[in-house]
Amino acid sequence: MGALLGGLGIAVLSIMMIARVLHSEFRGAPFRTFIRGTKMVSSSKLYRLTNTGDKQISLAGIPMPKKIEPLHVLVNGATGTGKSVLLRELVASALSRGDRLVIVDPNGDMFSRFGTDKDFILNPYDQRTEGWSFFNEIQNEYDFHRYALSIVPRGRTEEAEEWASYGRLLLRETARKLALTGNPSVHALFHWTTIEEPESLRQFLQGTLAESLFTGSSEATRALSSARFVLSDKLAEHLSMPAGSFSIRQWLAQEDAGNLYITWREDMSVALKPLISAWVDVLCTSVLSLPEDENRRIWLVIDELASLEKLASLESALTKGRKHGLRVVAGLQSTSQADDIYGLKAAQTLRSCFRTLVVLGGSRTDPKTNEDMSLCLGEHEVERVLYSQNHGERMSTTRAIQTIRERVVTPTELAHLPELTAYVALAGNLPITRVALTIQQYPRILAAFEGKNPC
Fold it and tell me: Which pTM value belongs to this model?
């Protein structure tokens, strides 16, 4: 373990040094005087401004000031522009100083490069997975309510939310009843909520809030059918998890418990999406239960935010998690993806919670995202000297000073940005910079996926 951390530390230092050599100076239109707005500097200058030499996180080769780490990082970029390269560097630097990480890890790439025997995997189809159940997270009566929201997220439309609310009601009241047996299971929960005869279910839930699903005639029938339909989708993959006692909130409370990798293969992504989203939301709500400790460092790394369902607890985690040591790094290919999942206003609110921004190359076929990211990188107001010539009988040249307000980086520049090139805008009153990413080799030391024996 010591050798691994030492190697990671050397690798991170190498990246920072290479980035200093390969820095890119801003080559925009020249101006006479900078007045106000976003300032662009070379990556070597920003490196000097932020480097304290005190085990900082490396973000695209730039040392992050420690005080802005809990303000979260959004990484935007089209497919194939270098997002994985950037995230591996960040993960390596976090591991080198002993931080804890929860990594939503498509194809097990991060686990294969950085995993150790102290770490944990959640993946129902990997034989190394921990055994987990919804009931493992329940410690208090109100947990049924908040974790039901993790399993059945809010609907994207009013109609979808109405259905989802019926599902959450049936889920939490049935789970409460099963918990009273002393040996609850997800299999029993699934059977009661989706398969059991309605009359038997009604008798089982008599005296609970879910009894309202059986009161009346056609409306009650529709509500119950909606609830069972929703849960048949959201709970199905929970049945694939092996029995066990692993709890995300207990893992969070044990500071020496290693790191957590939530993995899947791309051919599993559609089936596992509800389960993976539930795990991430459980983490987001559970971290807020930890005692406040700004010296705690827990990173949640989400390679692609749009690969998850609507997370009910994400906004609270982003706005309140800082006091509990949470740092979120999320990738996003297109702003329209988040708009579609969360709605325009909620998606804008979520993006506003990420104070540090890294923008890689955009797609020419997605001008909206390029426009949004250009706005995020900011504008500046400058004075330029303009010359005009009069070609009359006496040719003369006129010199004038013009004040201009303009984008520091235009949408077109982002659409044409080369691979492994990014703009870094750190939180606070710091200038932005353009950097060239360097591919650092992190060899695979573990299998990314070990399938279960079907027999």
Answer: 0.90
CA distances from residue 132 to 250, 256, 269, 355 in whole angstroms, order as listed: 12, 20, 19, 34
DSSP output for 260-290: EEEEE-GGGHHHHHHHHHHHHHHHHHHHTTS
What residues contact residue 149 under an 8 Å CB cut-off, 6+ apart? 168, 281, 285, 312, 313
User: What DSSP string describes 54-119?
Assistant: SSPPEETTEEPPGGGGGG-EEEE--TTSSHHHHHHHHHHHHHHTT-EEEEEEETTHHHHHH--TT-
Tokens matching residue 211:
């009894």
Beta bridge partners of 401: 385
Dist CA 212 CA 228 (whole Å): 14
Based on C-alpha coordinates, what's the Rg of the chain? Answer: 26
DSSP code per residue over 126-160: BTTPPPB-GGGG--STTHHHHHHHHHSPPPSSHHH
What's the rounded Cα separation, in Å, for the pair 281 and 287?
10
Q: Per 3-state DSSP, what percentage of the chain is helix, strand, and coil (rounded to 5)? A: 45, 20, 35
The answer to whether 166 and 213 are in contact (CB under 8 A) is yes
pLDDT per position as a tens digit, 308-346: 999 999 999 999 999 999 999 999 999 999 999 999 999
The pLDDT, as a whole number, for residue 183 is 84
The side-by-side arrangement of strands in the sheet containing 421-425 is 40-41, 432-436, 421-425, 356-359, 73-76, 326-332, 298-302, 100-106, 260-264, 120-122
Domains of the chain: 2-132+241-436 (3.40.50.300), 135-239 (1.10.8.80)
Which tens digit of pLDDT belongs to each residue from 274-317?
999 999 999 999 999 999 998 999 999 999 999 999 999 999 99
How far apart, in whole angstroms, are the C-alpha atoms of residue 167 and residue 374? 41
Query: 74, 103, 111: which is closest to 377 by C-alpha?
Result: 74
Q: How far apart are the first and last CA of the chain?
A: 35
